[in-house]
């Protein structure tokens, strides 16, 4: 997905275009027929391009994305980013940070309603649970009680299969959307995965150069 201007009424000092490396252009159609919020030519207006989830994309695909961007605006600086898990917090004790190792050798059910559920599941797999299952909903979806019942059914299946209670993992985005409904999953434990976006050093482009470029553009 490409995101250019989301709030047209806001005045801008600079514009950063975000490109989902896992699904950069989709079917090349605008919403609601496709994932694009603006036509690709809008890249001409951008000051910086950021290719997200670059750690999950083959090098050739990254080269193809770069080629498309530079065909539209050759001089546009391109940075590459990833989401890096930081810690968990438990639904019923949100003030306490839990180490990522809390799910080692556990059975987990990843539940998400985000644009890139694959990236979320891959991040969990890398942490090292015994088994990772998943429930994917459409982006921005609000969980309903019927969904909770469906999740509970899957959790009971996992419990029967492995002999102990699985853990539900959700993203911060899904938690913030409706933290109360997730409490209906009790007595199953619900953990919220907190992550941060990091710039992947590539061809001299890193976090320091990104900050320097922002400062330069804002001063201009």
UniProtKB/TrEMBL annotation:
Q: Per UniProt, what is one Pfam family of this protein? A: LpxK
Q: Name one GO cellular component term.
A: membrane
Q: Where are the transmembrane segments?
A: 100-120
Q: Which UniProt keywords apply?
A: ATP-binding, Kinase, Lipid A biosynthesis, Lipid biosynthesis, Lipid metabolism, Membrane, Nucleotide-binding, Transferase, Transmembrane, Transmembrane helix
The Enzyme Commission number assigned here is 2.7.1.130
Q: Does the keyword ATP-binding apply?
A: yes
Example GO biological process term?
lipid A biosynthetic process
Q: Indicate whether Ribosomal protein appears among the record's keywords.
A: no
**Pathway the protein acts in:** Glycolipid biosynthesis; lipid IV(A) biosynthesis; lipid IV(A) from (3R)-3-hydroxytetradecanoyl-[acyl-carrier-protein] and UDP-N-acetyl-alpha-D-glucosamine: step 6/6
UniProt-listed InterPro entries: LpxK
Please give the Gene Ontology molecular function terms for this protein: ATP binding; lipid-A 4'-kinase activity
* EC class (word): transferase
Q: What is this protein called?
A: tetraacyldisaccharide 4'-kinase
The species this protein belongs to is Gossypium barbadense (Sea Island cotton)
Its lineage reads: Eukaryota, Viridiplantae, Streptophyta, Embryophyta, Tracheophyta
């Amino acid at each position: 997905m490409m995101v250019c201007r989301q709030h047209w009424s806001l005045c801008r000092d600079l514009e950063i275009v975000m490109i989902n490396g896992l699904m950069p252009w989709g079917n090349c159609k605008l919403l609601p027929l496709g994932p694009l919020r603006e036509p690709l030519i809008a890249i001409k207006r951008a000051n910086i391009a950021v290719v997200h989830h670059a750690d999950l994309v083959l090098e050739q695909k990254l080269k193809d994305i770069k080629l498309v961007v530079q065909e539209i605006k050759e001089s546009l600086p391109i940075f590459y980013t990833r989401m890096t898990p930081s810690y968990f917090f438990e639904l019923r004790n949100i003030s306490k940070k839990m180490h990522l190792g809390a799910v080692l050798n556990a059975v987990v059910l990843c539940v998400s309603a985000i644009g890139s559920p694959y990236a979320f599941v891959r991040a969990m797999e890398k942490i090292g649970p015994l088994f990772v299952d998943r429930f994917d909903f459409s982006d921005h979806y609000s969980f309903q009680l019927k969904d909770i019942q469906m999740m509970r059914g899957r959790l009971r299946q996992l419990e029967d299969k492995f002999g102990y209670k699985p853990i539900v993992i959700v993203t911060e985005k899904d938690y913030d959307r409706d933290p109360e409904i997730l409490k209906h999953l009790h007595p199953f434990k619900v953990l919220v995965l907190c992550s941060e976006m990091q710039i992947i050093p590539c061809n001299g482009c890193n976090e320091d150069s990104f900050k320097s470029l922002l400062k330069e553009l804002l001063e201009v």
